[in-house]
Amino acid sequence: MNIMKTFKSLIVSTAASLFFFGSYAQGTSTVLKNERRIANNSLEVVARFDKTRPGNVAVSADGRVFATIHPLGAPNEQLVEIIKGRAVPYPSADLQKNGKAASAETFDTPLGIVVDKKNNLWMIDMGLELGRTRLFSFDLKKNQITNTIEFDQIIAPKGSFIQDLAIDESRGWVYLADISNPGIIAFDLSTKTARRFSGDKALQSEDVDMLIDGKVINFGGKPARVGINPITLSDDRETIFFGAMNGTKWYQVPAKLFREGADDETIGKSIVKFGDKPVSDGVVTDQHGNHYITNLGGFGISKLDASGHLQDYITDRKLNWPDNLALSKDGYLYISVNQLYTTPAFTGSSDAGKPPYFIYRIKL
């Protein structure tokens, strides 16, 4: 499937901005042992979205909550801070597209965001309208952009869909995932140089259907096959974890191979399976080596613990397409939920979504 070609055709037919193709859970094809089930009233509403869909979510060390707005539907705002339950443009309204065409002076189609251990906010803007993939960092004390890095056509060629990232703040490296041209991009902040690792089987989609309530979810008129999406780092930043969106394996590879300039063959031979996972979208890895993984077919979150054991962790019908996850310092798991499979890109007709959409949190 040519993901970018399909996205562009959707823009023409829906008069919307280019769209992030989220992931799906495997549903009944993976059976997980329950660790615990969470009652409906355990999910706390952080923010409610009556018109737009939240994309990814991030939480600062002092509990500030940030979210991208999903590019589908040409939202006026691209990046917001949640203040008293309201989505407020961040860091200013002037940096949002506000219904205008994309430009170098505004955000375009961002999705992935994360707060690093130094309490800086990072965001990857896929540039699907502008044609320029940019990485932004923000000083959360000054509420200002501190870095804007644009990737060249060798690293981010036409048709790229670079939408997830992980930060090694101590060594100054950024690792990003491209689902359209499946690959890992490693960027050295000190030298401003990047390399792309691609072609390995582990980066590709598995031949696994994406199921919700037992129904195969189509994209572009047929079951989608989408490669690497979630990418995370271990707490010591020495191990990169990743997996395909519609895949059942969670992989690991030493980060130092990228830092030390190892060739693709060496990196490929060093990739090993860490454990199983459901077909998923977002993943977050905690300081103890546990991986919390969105499980769309299960309307929940799965937990792959440090020993490689996979279990259901949260099950709740409110988690209707949990798109992305973030952890806070005070032990909450934040969950962005947006019913993405009900959009015209998947239904092939009208939007079947039933607002509102939510960011939830739950105490772990």
UniProtKB/TrEMBL annotation:
Q: Where in the cell is it found?
A: Secreted
Q: Signal peptide span per the entry?
A: 1-25
Principal location listed in the UniProt entry:
secreted
In this entry, which stretches build a coiled coil? none
Task: Enumerate the UniProt keywords alphabetically.
Answer: Secreted, Signal
- Is Cytoplasm given among the entry's keywords? no
Alphabetized Pfam families for the sequence? MRJP (PF03022)
Question: What is the protein name given in its UniProt record?
Answer: Cupin
* Lineage, top ranks: Bacteria, Pseudomonadati, Bacteroidota, Flavobacteriia, Flavobacteriales
